């Protein structure tokens, strides 16, 4: 597919990996994705930054690119911003997973009447991962409507990738405090903190230290773009090493303002070693999402 694909492949081949697993990629209905891109183009209030979309391609081209990079498994992160959307999005995601076998069947949720019913339906239909976006959805993870859902997902052992940090702009219910209250009630919930909890890195690392099922994904963290407005504190680098078995590669593809390979190089320059990189870019996700394929 070209020089960039070659660069990505060289990265994981050097590590002796069969490829990489990316737990934070976005695929969604075209009309929804176009609106997301328009929001980024307008530097909306939840971003407030110039944010060019590097991979603004049709769906098939985006899939071809991920595969050319050697991404063995990925997700279709999607999320509602109002009631009445989640069930429809889940139907689309189930169809997408059925026609895209290397995509982990993804689902989402929103605090609304019927949420327990459609989350249970998604689980029974084979959903492997959920997405919860507290910033865009503007809801409290501790909303009573969601309590049975968190219990169901904890019992099923299904990870929930959650945008709960206050970056790039704070939301009404973002930050570590609400998530701390949630985990106190559901300590076995497999919560994956998106973006390493940016900018509250230290606080979310502390939650991962306190709760063995909490993980963090690397999405956009450590890149030149994010370091420009929300740098990862150098003093916390040792904690990244200590939690090396619970950090997962995520990228935000296609909605990133730089080449895909830059996320990988940003991890490499942390200088935490090849074993750490192998775990983050493949091993940890392979253990969390086991299958008969590599």
UniProtKB/TrEMBL annotation:
Any Pfam family hit: Amidohydro_2
Domain Amidohydrolase-related, chain residue ranges per copy: 21-290
Gene3D superfamilies assigned to the protein according to its UniProt record, in alphabetical order: Metal-dependent hydrolases
Source organism (scientific name): Streptomyces anulatus (Streptomyces chrysomallus)
Keywords tagged on the record: Lyase
Protein name: Amidohydrolase
């Amino acid at each position: 597919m070209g020089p960039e694909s070659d660069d990505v492949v060289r990265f994981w081949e050097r590590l002796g990996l069969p490829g990489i697993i990316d737990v934070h990629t976005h695929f969604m209905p075209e009309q929804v994705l176009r609106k997301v891109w328009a929001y980024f183009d307008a530097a909306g209030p939840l971003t407030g930054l110039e944010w060019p979309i590097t991979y603004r391609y049709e769906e098939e081209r985006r899939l071809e690119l991920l595969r050319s990079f050697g991404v063995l498994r990925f997700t279709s992160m999607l999320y509602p911003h109002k009631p009445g959307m989640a069930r429809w999005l889940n139907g689309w995601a189930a169809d997408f997973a059925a026609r895209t076998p290397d995509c982990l069947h993804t689902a989402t949720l929103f605090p609304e009447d019927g949420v327990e019913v459609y989350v249970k339906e998604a689980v029974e239909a084979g959903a492997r991962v959920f997405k919860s976006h507290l910033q865009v959805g503007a809801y409290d993870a501790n909303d009573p409507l969601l309590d049975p859902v968190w219990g169901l997902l904890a019992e099923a052992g299904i990870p929930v990738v959650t945008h709960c940090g206050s970056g790039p702009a704070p939301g009404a219910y973002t930050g570590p405090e609400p998530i701390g209250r949630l985990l106190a009630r559901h300590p076995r919930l497999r919560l994956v903190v998106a973006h390493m909890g940016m900018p509250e890195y230290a606080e979310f690392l502390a939650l991962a230290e306190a709760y063995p099922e909490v993980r963090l994904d690397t999405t956009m963290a450590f890149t030149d773009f994010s370091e420009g407005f929300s740098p990862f504190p150098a003093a916390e680098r040792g904690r990244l090493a200590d939690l090396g078995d619970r950090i997962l590669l995520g990228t935000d593809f296609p909605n990133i303002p730089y080449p895909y390979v830059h996320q990988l190089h940003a991890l490499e320059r942390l200088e935490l070693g090849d074993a750490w990189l192998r775990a983050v870019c493949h091993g940890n996700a392979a253990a969390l999402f086991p299958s008969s394929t590599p």
